[in-house]
Amino acid sequence: MLNATSVRVNGDLVQIRLRLTAMAEVLEERRHALATNLESTREEVFDELDRAQRISEVNFAIALESGIVDASSQLAHAIAVLDAGGYGLCEDCGARISAARLSFRPESTRCLTCQGTADSKHSAA
Asked: Within its chain, how far is the Cα of 122 from the centroid?
Protein backbone atom coordinates (compact mmCIF):
# COMPACT_ATOMS: atom_id res chain seq x y z
CA MET A 1 0.00 0.00 0.00
CA LEU A 2 1.34 3.44 -0.92
CA ASN A 3 1.53 6.11 1.74
CA ALA A 4 1.74 9.87 1.18
CA THR A 5 5.54 9.89 1.50
CA SER A 6 6.08 7.16 -1.10
CA VAL A 7 3.69 8.89 -3.51
CA ARG A 8 5.58 12.17 -3.05
CA VAL A 9 8.95 10.45 -3.51
CA ASN A 10 7.74 8.59 -6.60
CA GLY A 11 6.35 11.83 -8.02
CA ASP A 12 9.64 13.54 -7.31
CA LEU A 13 11.52 10.75 -9.08
CA VAL A 14 9.26 11.10 -12.12
CA GLN A 15 10.01 14.82 -12.21
CA ILE A 16 13.74 14.17 -11.84
CA ARG A 17 13.63 11.62 -14.67
CA LEU A 18 11.79 14.12 -16.86
CA ARG A 19 14.42 16.77 -16.05
CA LEU A 20 17.31 14.41 -16.83
CA THR A 21 15.66 13.31 -20.07
CA ALA A 22 15.05 16.93 -21.11
CA MET A 23 18.70 17.75 -20.40
CA ALA A 24 19.78 14.80 -22.56
CA GLU A 25 17.51 15.96 -25.39
CA VAL A 26 18.98 19.47 -25.28
CA LEU A 27 22.49 18.03 -25.44
CA GLU A 28 21.53 15.93 -28.45
CA GLU A 29 20.11 19.01 -30.18
CA ARG A 30 23.34 20.89 -29.47
CA ARG A 31 25.40 17.99 -30.76
CA HIS A 32 23.37 17.94 -33.97
CA ALA A 33 23.73 21.73 -34.40
CA LEU A 34 27.46 21.45 -33.79
CA ALA A 35 27.79 18.70 -36.40
CA THR A 36 25.83 20.81 -38.89
CA ASN A 37 28.04 23.81 -38.19
CA LEU A 38 31.17 21.69 -38.47
CA GLU A 39 30.01 20.40 -41.85
CA SER A 40 29.73 23.97 -43.11
CA THR A 41 33.38 24.61 -42.20
CA ARG A 42 34.58 22.07 -44.74
CA GLU A 43 34.53 24.63 -47.54
CA GLU A 44 37.87 25.16 -49.22
CA VAL A 45 39.83 28.23 -48.13
CA PHE A 46 42.80 29.75 -49.86
CA ASP A 47 43.93 32.40 -47.41
CA GLU A 48 46.30 31.25 -44.62
CA LEU A 49 44.55 33.39 -42.01
CA ASP A 50 41.18 31.88 -42.96
CA ARG A 51 42.72 28.40 -42.85
CA ALA A 52 44.10 29.04 -39.35
CA GLN A 53 40.69 30.34 -38.23
CA ARG A 54 39.00 27.27 -39.69
CA ILE A 55 41.40 24.91 -37.91
CA SER A 56 40.75 26.74 -34.64
CA GLU A 57 36.97 26.46 -35.14
CA VAL A 58 37.22 22.74 -35.93
CA ASN A 59 39.38 22.06 -32.85
CA PHE A 60 36.94 24.00 -30.68
CA ALA A 61 34.00 22.08 -32.15
CA ILE A 62 35.74 18.77 -31.47
CA ALA A 63 36.35 19.78 -27.84
CA LEU A 64 32.70 20.83 -27.48
CA GLU A 65 31.49 17.55 -28.95
CA SER A 66 33.68 15.62 -26.52
CA GLY A 67 32.12 17.54 -23.61
CA ILE A 68 28.63 16.90 -24.95
CA VAL A 69 29.35 13.17 -25.30
CA ASP A 70 30.68 13.01 -21.72
CA ALA A 71 27.67 14.92 -20.35
CA SER A 72 25.24 12.75 -22.33
CA SER A 73 26.91 9.62 -20.99
CA GLN A 74 26.61 10.92 -17.41
CA LEU A 75 22.93 11.74 -17.93
CA ALA A 76 22.25 8.26 -19.33
CA HIS A 77 24.07 6.74 -16.36
CA ALA A 78 22.06 8.85 -13.90
CA ILE A 79 18.80 7.78 -15.56
CA ALA A 80 19.88 4.13 -15.30
CA VAL A 81 20.72 4.60 -11.60
CA LEU A 82 17.36 6.30 -11.04
CA ASP A 83 15.52 3.48 -12.85
CA ALA A 84 17.38 0.90 -10.72
CA GLY A 85 16.24 2.65 -7.52
CA GLY A 86 19.58 4.06 -6.43
CA TYR A 87 19.05 7.75 -7.21
CA GLY A 88 20.35 10.03 -4.49
CA LEU A 89 22.81 7.52 -3.10
CA CYS A 90 26.54 7.71 -3.85
CA GLU A 91 27.51 4.84 -6.12
CA ASP A 92 30.94 4.65 -4.44
CA CYS A 93 30.34 4.96 -0.68
CA GLY A 94 26.54 4.58 -0.42
CA ALA A 95 26.05 7.86 1.46
CA ARG A 96 23.16 10.16 0.62
CA ILE A 97 24.03 12.80 -1.96
CA SER A 98 23.08 16.22 -0.63
CA ALA A 99 19.84 17.75 -1.85
CA ALA A 100 21.75 20.91 -2.81
CA ARG A 101 24.11 18.91 -5.04
CA LEU A 102 21.24 17.03 -6.68
CA SER A 103 19.34 20.26 -7.20
CA PHE A 104 22.34 21.86 -8.90
CA ARG A 105 23.54 18.72 -10.74
CA PRO A 106 20.68 16.22 -10.93
CA GLU A 107 22.90 13.85 -12.93
CA SER A 108 25.18 13.34 -9.91
CA THR A 109 25.66 9.73 -8.91
CA ARG A 110 28.44 10.37 -6.38
CA CYS A 111 28.64 12.45 -3.22
CA LEU A 112 30.91 15.47 -3.38
CA THR A 113 33.78 13.72 -1.58
CA CYS A 114 33.74 10.66 -3.85
CA GLN A 115 33.33 12.84 -6.95
CA GLY A 116 36.43 14.79 -5.93
CA THR A 117 38.35 11.54 -5.52
CA ALA A 118 37.14 10.26 -8.92
CA ASP A 119 38.04 13.56 -10.59
CA SER A 120 41.53 13.46 -9.04
CA LYS A 121 42.09 9.92 -10.29
CA HIS A 122 40.81 10.85 -13.74
CA SER A 123 43.06 13.91 -14.06
CA ALA A 124 46.09 11.95 -12.85
CA ALA A 125 45.57 9.27 -15.50
From this structure: 16
Query: Which strand (E) or helix (H) includes residue 48?
Result: helix 48-83
Chain-wide mean pLDDT for the chain? 87
Measured CA angle at 42 (ends 39, 46), to 5 deg = 160
For Cα atoms 35, 41, 46, give the angle at the middle one, nearest 5 degrees: 165
Look at residue 4 and tell me whether its pLDDT is greater than 50: no
- Residues 11-61 have pLDDT tens digits of 789 999 999 999 999 999 999 998 888 777 666 667 888 888 888 888 999
Do 106 and 114 form a contact (C-beta atoms < 8 A)? no
Q: How many CB atoms lie within 10 A of CB 58?
A: 13
In angstroms, the CA 103 to CA 70 distance is 20
